[in-house]
């Protein structure tokens, strides 16, 4: 590459107002400098300034004007200063001025810097950040804890009471449990707000929309973030917001390779060729790669391919992790064998701590080289790689073709500011047609019954208000006006389907004798739970059978009865007992999550209704609490979100270091206990093995503030 000639081309683009092309050529030029260890000239620095990529400036070789720009665009992002690029700075200025903004920007934009700078500058009392997944909850918590834990209480679980100044970080379902605990919100931040559309997330959009409506009424300011949205259709959720399209501003360049064009023949021949191409790419690149496989069967296919063809790594960290997985999960698990070959799996079903540890190892030079993933890698964490390989051009689940929006989200994981100037995208199947994405957010009727038409009248049309009034009158007939109005105000129901709540209440009112014995769920004898569990899951037959959760009712009931032993038994021991019901480790992860969230939410709603309708003194809240934490001590379950696996917590409990059965424990005073004991002390215990120590380092990193 001739540097001066390339600079001339970049300058011509700038003169012609073709800034995107100029920026792309500049990024490629910076990559050339990086790979060849060439110092930036004043000319290169000046072009960096002209394209708005101020953080890339090298102040020691820039002229004074460019150095000045580098300095004046520095802001406090929480304990330290960082230079923002031009578009970040513009966005921050508008937020500081109090504007409500919905912004669409590429993954590499650096949207989190803007949030951190806003908190540092404005010092708000209450910040609420809604994220789509538990994994992203912890990632956001870790970032903000380091910067702001000395000034704010960082809250991620619903059991904790707020302080005077708080940063709340919740997935949308948890946010609803906090609506009545927060009187005023300085700024409401919705990350990945495209999930408010049922087109992109049918199951979660109702709860996110409820959160936007209810929290929005208490918010002085709103900031919504999403990638790859070119416009927003008219809707009541963003009607008072300014839409900012920043898609043209990227800090990395994506280089596309299209080996799918060389793959020919019938279906079997194509699959063989595709496998050969994947192995060739991994052999030639030798750098970090994300492999998008779309569905669980395709993950299995790629896993088998790599297990059969990649050699076992000699990296000590991977050997230790594989040994740890063998001991704690089992030797025959495919992930255990993949890790030995430098490969991880990210699919949204694994234990949270295992997913986090894999992402951490993916960041390590001597850690994982590749991760096979569903779309969970674009929804759950902010990680990137030099290479993104599209193995399958289908959406997660494997049925419908990728649309342009989802495809851009996936390939947006290629490249990273300051690490990979160029992200390399390898397409093993054809990409979708290029297209723009208008975000349409229809108002779902399923949530209308959870709203008060008087409070939310400004957000609803006359037809929706009429539906609410009809629903309320029906619920008044079943529960009575005073009771239903109170429940509505308390925001107490977990279900996002008002019709389901109404029909369950009607059935309970008509046949109260069917619910005799609900109190058996509080029994310590799981065999007495059968009838009630069958009856409860039968209220949603399509959810547990061959439908959404894909398992027969009998299997699920038996699973719950064995899960009771979750704290006292190891996972290999549980799997031995579950083997008679053909439940393997992959189903264990899925069903544990289904029990903890879906089953506990369902029983919670039933418990509320039966207390109001039958009123026989029965309260199964103790059982709901147990199942919602997968029958682990509540703090142990929450610690997994912080990156501390239950196996290490169990060791600390069994050796008398922390009594996790203490009812006075909550996540915040437990963190204080960990601080008092100290990382060094915990790592010194002889029952803490080598990879336990690696995990403990990672855990403490997430509960430690920056020294600044």
Describe the structure.
With 708 residues, the protein is of the alpha/beta class. The protein folds into five domains: 3-76; 81-245, 3-Layer(aba) Sandwich (Rossmann fold); 253-436, Rossmann fold, CATH 3.40.50; 492-619, no CATH class; 634-703, no CATH class. Strands 5-6-4-7-8-3-10 form a seven-stranded parallel beta sheet, sandwiched between helices. A six-stranded parallel beta sheet has the order 11-16-15-12-14-13, with helices on both faces. It has a two-stranded antiparallel ribbon with strand order 1-2. Residues 545-549 have low confidence and may be disordered.
Tell me the name of the CATH class of the largest domain.
Alpha Beta
- Taken from the alpha-carbon principal axes, the silhouette is globular
Q: Assign the CATH superfamily of the largest domain.
A: P-loop containing nucleotide triphosphate hydrolases
Question: Taking Cα atoms only, what radius of gyration do you get, to the nearest Å?
Answer: 27 Å
Q: Which parts are unreliable, with pLDDT below 50 for 5 consecutive residues or more?
A: 545-549
Instruction: Count the domains.
Output: 5
Number of helices: 30
Strand content: 5-15%
The number of strands is 17
CATH architecture of the largest domain: 3-Layer(aba) Sandwich
Label the structural class: alpha/beta
Average pLDDT over all residues: 91
Largest sheet: 7 strands, parallel
State the share of residues found in helices, binned by percent: 40-55%
Named CATH topology of the largest domain: Rossmann fold
